[in-house]
Design a protein that fits this description.
The complex is a heterodimer. Chain A is built from 7 helices and 4 strands; from the N terminus they run ααααβααβββα. Chain A is an alpha+beta fold. Chain A folds into 2 domains: 60 residues, Arc Repressor Mutant, subunit A; 78 residues, 3-Layer(aba) Sandwich (Glutaredoxin), CATH 3.40.30. In chain A, strands 2-1-3-4 form a 4-stranded mixed β-sheet, with helices on one face. Chain A is elongated. By secondary structure, chain B is an alpha/beta fold. Chain B is built from 24 helices and 17 strands. In chain B, the strands form 5 sheets. Chain B has a 5-stranded mixed β-sheet with strand order 10-9-13-11-12. Chain B has a 4-stranded mixed β-sheet with strand order 2-1-3-4, with helices on one face. In chain B, helix 6 runs parallel beside helix 10 and helix 17 packs antiparallel against helix 18. The model of chain B has no long low-confidence stretch (mean pLDDT 94). The chains are: A alpha+beta, B alpha/beta. At the A-B interface, helix 2, helix 4, helix 5 and helix 6 of A face helix 1, strand 7, strand 9, strand 13 and helix 17 of B.
């Protein structure tokens, strides 16, 4: 399994237990627990999943099954500036693929990967619902509309010195 | 709303917010205050107006002036000119693309002329975070009427008589669904709103939830009373933070006003609503998968029967309806089943909301009566194809639908006609494509989506779609053979016939419909190695036309892989072995000296 190994600190374990408890340690709340946990850690490595399984009294396999089923959950840490290129149909027909290729070319990482310095990661997402602005790229919470291949450099420039 | 002379409605939908409409709102408020107009002018954030192409939008009430592409810095002009002096700011008015004239108000815009807004009636009109505005727009009147004056049977009969069919895609009669759920006994029944809008390129449900969340709450309470449920759940995508926020606000306000909770409006009926979050899985739009996901499992569908009405959430009788279906319910009770049934075609009543996107001038959200033709939607409301290009296809129904072509343009849109044409209504995505789109690649794009989103439970969908994708990939790379076309068709039919749920049963539709309508494009890829639309990289070559090249070096300077050689004022040359076919040279050349062969 290509996952990042991580030794959980005592604080982290406590945090996971708190989250589980806030949902009454109810196994049916697994997805909500994972949402909260990912919000806190940024991703869901194996060690975190083990702790969640413990907290809800279910098997690690069950947790792993759910984490890998839904695209919102990730087992790899994202970059400090996560880049999401919308590859919904509206963006696709307006050239999202070329924009995505340009990000991959410049940053030299594939979709789902993070640059070695941990600064950027590239993911695809399916429709943010801003189809009027297609093609759309999001960096963190910031939305960029009508992005062209030329515009990719300009977007990255904004984060150059950070 | 009566005491103000002017209302400035600022679109607060996701699209316009991405273009800084929230800053615009603050600026307008500031300007109004500075000019001392607080008692005359009200600035309101509303839901989506639908005209997303030219957002951010500001609409002035009562004169319906419609400002487009408004930047935060334009706030000063709007307040100083329009609000203070009553003069329209011409430069911000919508410009008719044909007549090249400014259009004074929304009533004269082609985009709105043929629309009938029922589900979207309050979007762009009321402040979605203020329950009083919803109440002023006849909100919760239907709930009161149903709870205090009707038996569940009477209320269900009205929904049946209206002819309303499920807007999530399947088109099952809503009233009949309620009647079935009512007839099943259970210790605890549930009402579920499916807000897991997974169709890429569709944003109808998001806009309704962002623009008019109370209508969904009201309809769910009516639904609950009809089938005997006291609990409601909204399953919503975690990717829609703004819609989630507005729902939370709306639920809290409804509880505070006694419109949710115990003894609603003194009727003795209890009903409350909770949110459940999706986590990005297209298959969760299928109701059994959705229910599994709400229970904290992988969102895998199960065989029906048993239907959710018999055994749904936690094994209890559950009624699942889509957001848009619910948005129609209060109006049906306010205006009557007969009125609703008078709109639309014989078997498809009312209106349908479509998310119009792709290569079209007016991208946006529209609501049209059933029975309107694709031509009216694309060329009148949508304003035609972008950049004066030629219309090629329109894709309806998302990954489950098909690509329709020129010959279908005059077919009236309803559930049955679309299926007969080889597509389907789906949830309402409508993507327009022009001559630059390769239909084989479009089919491949959808299959790529299906392969990724297949839950993997049944083999026809899990394995079959992957094989379909591989054959399409082979064709777009120029390695296709004639018998691949037979394989595509046969395999598609097997997947349709044998898959467990709606996802697999419809996933080959993009392949079948493009095979039917664009067979010559498949042939050209296979027999001539040609892609008409010049989209398939392996089948095209960029070359420089020596007669046109003036040696300006623009292409060479912009080539990302430095594969163009040539001195200043000399004819340039592309090294085909290095070219990645990005097209940057062609975009940059001002002399039409780069061509695709």
């Amino acid at each position: 399994m290509t996952s990042v190994k991580l030794k959980l600190k005592e604080n982290d374990v406590k945090k996971i237990q708190e989250i589980c408890k806030s949902f009454n340690n109810e196994p049916g709340e697994l997805i909500n627990v994972l949402h909260k946990t990912q919000e806190y850690f940024g991703y869901l490595p194996a060690e975190v999943q083990e702790e969640v399984a413990e907290g809800l009294g279910i098997s690690v396999a069950k947790v792993y099954g759910v984490v890998t089923f839904y695209s919102f959950f990730t087992m790899l840490p994202k970059g400090r500036y996560p880049i999401s290129v919308c590859t919904g149909t509206a963006c696709y027909v307006r050239g999202a693929e070329k924009v995505l290729d340009e990000f991959k070319r410049i940053l030299k990482v594939a979709v789902g990967e993070t640059t070695p310095d941990g600064k950027y990661s590239i993911t695809c997402l399916r429709c943010v619902g801003a189809c009027g602005l297609a093609p759309v790229v999001m960096v963190g919470d910031k939305t960029y509309g009508r992005v062209t291949t030329d515009g990719v450099k300009d977007i990255l420039k904004e984060y150059e010195n950070e | 709303m009566a005491k103000f002379k002017t209302h400035m409605l600022v679109c607060g939908g996701t699209g316009c917010r991405a273009s800084a409409s929230d800053v615009l709102y603050e600026n307008l408020k500031k300007e109004v205050k500075e000019k001392g107009l607080e008692n005359d002018v009200q600035v309101v954030t509303t839901g989506c107006f639908g005209f997303c192409e030219q957002g951010p939008i500001v609409k002035m009430i009562p004169d319906n002036t419609f400002y487009v592409g408004v930047q935060p810095k334009d706030a000063a002009d709007i307040v100083a000119e329009h609000a203070l002096k009553g003069r329209k700011v011409d430069r911000l008015l919508y410009k008719d693309p044909v007549k090249k004239e400014h259009v004074p108000d929304s009533k004269h815009m082609g985009f709105y002329k043929k629309q009938i807004r029922i589900a979207l009636r309050n979007c762009g009109l009321i402040d979605p975070e203020n329950v009083n505005e919803y109440l002023a727009a006849d909100g919760y009147e239907a709930l009161g009427k149903v709870l205090l004056e009707m038996t569940p049977e009477e209320a269900i009969q009205i929904v049946i008589d209206s002819g309303l069919r499920g807007r999530g895609g399947g088109g099952f009669p809503t009233g009949v669904k309620w009647k079935i759920a009512q007839g099943v006994k259970g210790a605890q029944k549930y009402v579920v709103c499916n807000a897991d809008e997974g169709d890429p390129g569709a944003f109808m449900d998001r806009s309704i939830l962002e623009g008019d969340p109370h209508t969904v709450l009201e309809a769910m309470a009516i639904n609950g009373y009809c089938i005997g449920a006291t609990k409601g759940l909204i399953y919503i995508r975690a990717e829609y933070p703004l819609a989630i926020h507005r729902l939370k606000v709306a639920i809290a306000q409804a509880r505070e006003y006694g419109l949710l909770g115990e003894d609603i409006l003194g009727s003795g009926y209890n009903f409350d609503i909770e949110l459940r979050y999706g986590a990005g899985a297209f298959v969760c739009g299928e109701e059994t998968a959705l229910i599994h996901s709400m229970e904290g499992h992988r969102g895998e569908p199960t065989f029906k029967p048993p239907f959710p009405a018999e055994s749904g959430y936690l094994g209890m009788p559950t009624n699942v309806n889509n957001v848009e279906t619910y948005a129609n319910i209060p109006v049906i009770f306010n205006k009557g089943a007969k009125w609703f049934a008078s709109i639309g075609t014989e078997k498809s009543k009312g209106t349908k909301v479509f998310a119009l996107a792709g290569k079209i001038n007016n991208v946006g959200l529209i609501e049209v009566p059933m029975g309107i033709t694709l031509r009216e939607v694309i060329f009148e409301i949508g304003g035609g194809i972008k950049g004066g290009k030629k219309f090629k296809a329109v894709q309806t129904g998302g990954p489950s639908g098909g690509c329709l072509t020129e010959k279908h343009l005059d077919t009236p849109i309803d559930y049955d006609n679309l299926i007969a044409s080889g597509s389907m209504m789906g949830s309402g995505g409508m993507i327009v494509m022009d001559e630059d789109d390769c239909m084989v690649s479009v089919a491949k794009f959808y299959l790529d989506f299906t392969v990724e989103e297949s839950c993997g439970k049944c083999s026809p969908c899990r394995i079959g779609n992957k094989r379909l994708y591989e054959i399409l990939e082979k064709i777009t790379k120029g390695h296709g053979a004639m018998d691949d076309l037979d394989k595509l068709r046969n395999l598609s039919n097997v997947i349709k016939d044998t898959s467990l749920c709606g996802l697999g049963q419809t996933s080959p539709n993009p392949v079948l419909s493009t095979l039917d309508n664009f067979y010559d494009e498949y042939l050209a890829h296979i027999t001539e190695g040609k892609c008409f639309a010049s989209q398939c990289k392996d089948l095209i070559k960029y070359e420089i036309i020596p007669e046109n090249c003036v040696g300006c070096t623009a292409c060479a300077r912009n080539c990302p892989v430095n594969c163009i050689s040539g001195e200043r004022k000399q004819i340039h040359l592309i090294d085909q072995s290095l070219c990645i076919k990005c097209g940057a040279c062609m975009e940059k050349c001002k002399f039409n000296a780069v061509t695709i062969i």
